[in-house]
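Exam revision sheet. Question 4 asks you to relate a sequence to its structure. Input first:
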Amino acid sequence: MATSRFIKDRGLTARMTLVMFLLGALFVVLVVGLMLAFRSPGIAVLIGVGGLGLAWFQWYRSDTVAMKAMRAREVGPEEAPELHAMIDRLCALADMPKPRVGIADMDIPNAFATGRSPDRAVVCVTTGILRRLTAEELEGVLAHELSHVAHRDVLVMTAAASAGILAGMVSQGSQYGAFFGGGRRDNNNNGVPLWVITLVISLVVYAVSFVLLRVLSRYRELCADRAGAYLTMKPQALASALQKITGEMASIPQKDLRASAAMNAFFIAPAISGASLKTLTATHPSLEQRLEQLAKIQAELGRPNA
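Answer key, structure tokens:
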């Protein structure tokens, strides 16, 4: 984890560590399962290396891919002086390197941060969020995103996704016989075909990984809310921003929400309208849970709610 002045939350960190451990164990289970199915470690290791290689590529190119997906462009201080000044101040408070700054020309009010390291990070906001939030609210959102950068959350989530990526590769290959050629379990053509065994193993691993990854994502968002709120010392501003962003989603055309759905895990709030987030598959905590945490921080700071 990067060194910064963002406050640590030992409880959330412990839970995130446990989930990371379970996801790592899943990766090992999948590779060992493939070894047993093939009775040869070579093929399983080759597939495992391929899965890790894909995860590495996604991490290494995360900033470029995310910016292209959002049709965002990098902006300099002369083009967005107020935005840069705000990020400069927050980075000085957090004692962290300043990331690149981007703007996506879309009406959806949102923001995200990505990049393989603090030195290669980018914080991007949409024109929709710039129009809708006050300076204090935008500062709260940016502090949240900078917390993701400081804590290397892109690396954490990419590493955590490795088991799911590998399981997805194996399940797709097994369905079409791409890896297994429809072979049987033994030389006498008796028993369950190898592709069935591998498909079952990979689907189970993928399903468990899918749920655990979303649990980790929700912890990550709560941790960023907490760290950002303590950095600015204005939790009520972040709470107000989250309420505005979530409320404004109802006014965004469904086609626009669907077009940005692939970025929901990166956004400060998912681009979803009229849907409950209180499910195992949600990438973010519910708005109620986030507001409750921010209200507790407000009380700890001894300031009246605005």
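Marking note for examiners. The chain is about 60% helix and 5% strand.
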